[in-house]
Specification:
Number of domains: 1
Radius of gyration: 19 Å
Structural class: mainly alpha
Length: 264
């Protein structure tokens, strides 16, 4: 096998014919060795640092001009969009500088089968998320069950352009960028250590939930993250987990759009 063949996407990454076969494939066919990948956990930590520091910087600049997250829609939009896009772009850039590019290193590709699997798992995830959110709201109270972004916009009568921008961020940009960072970069860092895909699944699921820095919602975020991680686990690609993540966020994002725009 030539080096070019070894760093191209292996045939074993192709999805199997059915869901059960995909599950069985997790243990039967281990992940191919990550040849040419010269980045690991340090890359993930750098990306997370850029995300956090850029969010802090944007908030500080806004505050210096008298804007706050509670009073400025523009600050919330910029503070939400810029850090996550910047972090995801850095993750992709690292794979070009120190690896084989995002298609190989992050498994950043998608097939028709990935879309189908992602949609199916996304629907199942929505059901579990709704059930878990209902139970969680009863335990901690509705006022503590809303996400940080949802809380900021739940009572706002936003301009239509701002409401649409937040919907696009919550339903598409945010999920896609988070998949690149967690189930792309972090997952790849775990596998580079020679750990199993199950270890990558567990670690990325937990870190994904904790990294949102919302202690009241961590257990709910774990429930949300499990189906998304399963999509990545059984297909070995980001495409399916991106679709599942978008599906999970779409209806809440749409509800927030209608609510914040004053439609409902």
């Amino acid at each position: 096998m030539t080096r070019l063949q070894s760093v191209s996407e292996p045939e074993s990454l192709e999805p199997k014919r059915g869901f059960i076969e995909n599950v069985r494939d997790i243990s039967r066919n281990p992940e191919p060795e990550r040849v040419g990948q010269r980045w690991g956990f340090g890359a993930f930590l750098l990306v997370e640092a850029v995300f956090i520091l850029s969010a802090v910087f944007i908030t500080a600049v806004g505050n210096s001009y008298g804007a706050t997250l509670e009073s400025s829609t523009a600050l919330v939009l910029i503070g939400s969009l810029v850090p996550i896009v910047l972090a995801a772009a850095l993750a992709v850039g690292i794979t070009y500088l120190r690896g084989n590019g995002p298609v190989v290193d992050l498994r950043l590709s998608i097939t028709k089968a990935d879309v189908v699997i992602g949609l199916k798992i996304g629907v199942v995830g929505l059901v579990f998320t709704y059930a878990a959110a209902t139970v969680w709201a009863k335990i901690v109270g509705k006022e503590n069950a809303t996400s940080a972004v949802g809380e900021l916009f739940s009572h706002a009568n936003l301009p239509l352009a701002a409401a649409i921008t937040m919907f696009v961020y919550m339903s598409f940009i945010g999920p896609i960028c988070e998949e690149i960072i967690f189930r792309g970069l972090l997952w790849g860092a775990v596998e580079r250590q020679g750990w199993s895909r199950w270890a990558a699944f567990v670690l990325t699921t937990v870190i994904f939930a904790v990294s949102h820095l919302e202690p009241q919602r961590t257990w709910l975020l774990l429930v949300i993250a499990i189906p998304i991680g399963v999509a990545r686990l059984i297909t070995r690609r980001l495409g399916a987990s991106m679709v599942a993540h978008v599906m999970n966020n779409f209806l809440p994002g749409l509800s927030l759009l209608l609510l914040s725009a004053g439609v409902i």
